[in-house]
Amino acid sequence: MEISTAEIAAWVGSFLWPLARVAALMSVAPVLSSRILPRRVRLMLALALTWAIVPLLPPMPAIEPISPAGILVVAQQILIGLSMGFALRLVFGALELGGQIITTQMGLGFASLIDPQNGTQSTLLSQFYTLLGSLIFLALNGHLLLIGLLADSFITLPPAPTGAGRELLWGLVVWAGHTFAGAVLIALPAIASLLVVNLAFGVMTRAAPQLNIFAVGFPVTLVLGLLVILYNLPTLFDQLNSLFDQAFLVIGQMTGRSG
């Protein structure tokens, strides 16, 4: 039995193109790209997911993997995977930004730790919101929805040397603006409450200059900020649910899925 070079290239391409998209998505997707998971585990997860998806996909293009067209296909798959993962990552960026804003208003900007998920330095509330968002994401089966959108993207946006680029990037730019507004809405209750408190302390300082405003104001703003966060948790759950729904809708639109 003889196997031609074209058949070998077809077999390699049928696994290589999906693997490039899956690996790119998992390198930036929230929870799945967490540094808590060792790189070996993430690589094995990407290989296993690709192996499970490949039999369900339509035939891949008969393109030599080591050729200019093959390199373009790989680049396209990486771009699509990164765009899908980054669209969902922006939701967690909104959580981190909202936590950063609240932390600054509460006077805890100096308290920062290394985020074990991303390996970067962030504030306490940013880590709290990120952890809370991860739990809600898993509770809503967001990881399963993301995998489903990934599998569908190979049908609506199959591997090809051309066909993706400007639309994906423009969709991310528009979605980034919406997530920034979401970050402001997350932090708005705490900002409004602490602004009123700071104005009250300003009036007290003018009325009683001998009052040590720093000794009184810091614990009051800290306790009030924590109470506002606790009171606003049910609203935060609804906001996160809405942001995740919009993120999945944006991913579907970027990959050509209707509905």
Give me the Rg, rounded: 23 Å
Biggest sheet: strands side by side, in what order? 1-2
Largest sheet: 2 strands, antiparallel
Helix content: over 70%
Secondary-structure content class: mainly alpha
Mean pLDDT: 82
Number of helices: 8
The helix/strand series, from N terminus to C terminus, equals HHHEEHHHHH
Give the N-to-C terminal Cα separation: 47 Å
Low-pLDDT stretches are none
Find the count of extended strands (DSSP E, 2+ residues). 2
Determine the strand fraction and express it as a percent band: under 5%
Number of domains: 1
Shape annotation: elongated
Description:
- The protein is mostly helical.
- It has one domain (5-254).
- 74% of the residues lie in helices and 2% in strands.
- A two-stranded antiparallel sheet has the order 1-2.
- α3 (68-106) packs parallel to α6 and α5 runs parallel beside α8.
- It is elongated.
- The mean pLDDT is 82.
- InterPro entries: FliR (IPR006303), T3SS_IM_R (IPR002010).
- Keywords: Bacterial flagellum, Cell membrane, Cell projection, Cilium, Flagellum, Membrane, Transmembrane, Transmembrane helix.
- The chain crosses the membrane at residues 15-32, 44-63, 69-92, 128-148, 168-201, 213-233.
- It is a multi-pass membrane protein.
- Role in flagellar biosynthesis.
Give a short summary of the structure.
The chain is mainly alpha-helical and 259 residues long. It has helices at 5-28, 39-53, 68-106, 124-139, 142-156, 166-207, 213-231, 233-254, and strands at 112-114, 121-123. The protein is built from eight helices and two strands; from the N terminus they run αααββααααα.
